[in-house]
Each structure stands twice: as C-alpha cells, then as structure tokens.
Design a protein that fits this description.
The protein has 244 residues and is α+β, with helices and mostly antiparallel strands. The protein has three helices and 14 strands. Helix content is 12%, strand content 30%. Strands 1-2-8-12-13 form a five-stranded mixed sheet. It has a three-stranded antiparallel sheet with strand order 5-4-6, with no helix packed on it. Strands 3-7 form a two-stranded antiparallel ribbon.
Length: 244
C-alpha cells in the first residue's frame, strides 16, 4: 500500500531554520503596516532594521516615488502606463516636432533638440510631480526602528501539548534604546502566527523583580506562558502601533 506524503509543518524545521522562518513572518507582517525591512550584515542581537516615511502633520504613510502626470488632462502614467508616454522631441530652432529617438531635426538638421514627453491621449506634456499628503502637508519624516525577533512553537512533552510557548531572554537582549523593540512570533499547532510587540521598557516593567533573579543573570531565563491567552504578555498581542 502506497502511503501518501505527510504534509510538512514547522515542526520539521531545525531550530535555526525555524528562527529564520519567524523573522520572515515578522517581516511580512511589518510590510503590511508600511515598514521597509532590512537584514543587518552582522547579527548583534538585532534581527531586523525597519524604516518608513510618514507625513509630519498627520502621520499617514508617505510615498516618496514621484508621479508622472499629464499637465493637460491629468492622466497618470506612474505605474503600468509608462509605455504609453510618447517620446516627442522639439527642435529649438524651427519648432519642428518629431517622434522617436532623434538626434537631429528632420527639417532643419539642427541638433538643438529638447525632450518633450507627451500624453498619448491629449498630446499634453507629461511632468514629474512629488507627492503631497491628502491632509495638504508637503513635509514628511523618516522613522527608524530596530527589531529583535523571538520565535516559539507550542511546547510538547511526552507526546502531549503543554499549551505553552517559551521565549528565552538574556541581559544582552536589553538594548535600552527607545527605537529598539521585541517582536515575539508564536506559532500555534495549526502553524498560524501570533505576534507580541513590546518595547524594552515594556519587558522590564512586566518582568519586575524577576530581572534580578540569578537565572536571568546566568542567561538561563525562559519565559513560559499560555498559548491560549498569552498570560501576562497578552496586552502586547498585535500591538504594531507601538512601533509608531
């Protein structure tokens, strides 16, 4: 009898590959919130560097890519319509208009030509315009954050689920910078990810006197908490707004 191939899950991943998978899931989730994500060349307890541009006035995401718009009819060529921009050139001497990659005027042979990208709809000039926010602001700011990712699967023992997650934290993880955050990527038994987002200050506050424990000092501290309600860490579930 031929056995069907078993569907692979994250339990088939080694610890190293599972860690990288967690970073990928976090990166994908961050991108949904408008962040650009980068990997540091060296892993110094920082797994991801993220940044975004936002309006200085209202905080909405800012698009730095200029738009290509017809001055006359307003047609937007910015995305898939760039191929429709007409490559027009105008002779400065005799004002003759030509289409294509010309180097000399077909009428007077002058080489004094200027580019005049034109609209295929109304023949108006296509210009490049910087974005402005819908709120009217033309100013933006850039935000940078560093992220340490911790990933966990549900713990099992004697073939049974313990219904707990486990995250290892060490003194060297306490990078006391207001731009530094932790994101814990927690995968349930169906491989669905859950994200806890917290600052270093949040972690220190919740841990309280436990940070003075000998196990934490010796890099032996492991936070075990419920996979059903996330225990004392539940307040940080999906709190991606903390990064703002």
């Amino acid at each position: 009898m031929i056995m069907k191939n078993r569907k692979k899950t994250t339990t088939d991943l080694s610890a190293k590959h599972f860690s990288r998978y967690g970073e990928f899931l976090v990166s994908f989730e961050l991108s949904k919130h408008g962040w650009n994500i980068y990997d540091p060349v060296y892993d110094e307890y920082i797994d991801l560097i993220i940044h975004k541009h936002v309006c200085e006035e209202c905080g909405k995401n800012w698009n730095l890519t200029p738009v290509l718009v017809c001055k006359k009819c307003g047609k937007d060529f910015s995305k898939s319509l760039k191929k429709d921009i007409v490559a027009k050139k105008i002779c400065q001497d005799c004002k003759n208009e030509m289409i294509g990659n010309k180097t000399k005027c077909a009428k007077c042979q002058s080489e004094n030509l200027i580019n005049h990208p034109s609209c295929d709809k109304c023949d108006g000039e296509v210009e490049m315009i910087d974005h402005s926010c819908k709120c009217g602001s033309k100013k933006y700011i850039t935000k940078f954050r560093t992220i340490q990712v911790k990933s966990s699967r549900i713990e099992h023992g004697d073939g049974k689920s313990k219904n707990t997650y486990a995250v290892d934290m060490k003194p060297r993880d306490l990078i006391k910078d207001e731009s530094h955050f932790y994101i814990w990527c927690l995968l349930d038994d169906k491989d669905h990810p859950h994200f806890l987002v917290l600052s270093v200050k949040d972690f220190i506050k919740v841990m309280g006197d436990s940070l003075k424990g000998i196990s934490f000092f010796k890099d032996q501290d492991r936070q075990h908490f419920s996979s059903r309600d996330f225990g004392k860490w539940r307040e940080f579930l999906d709190k991606f707004d903390k990064l703002e």
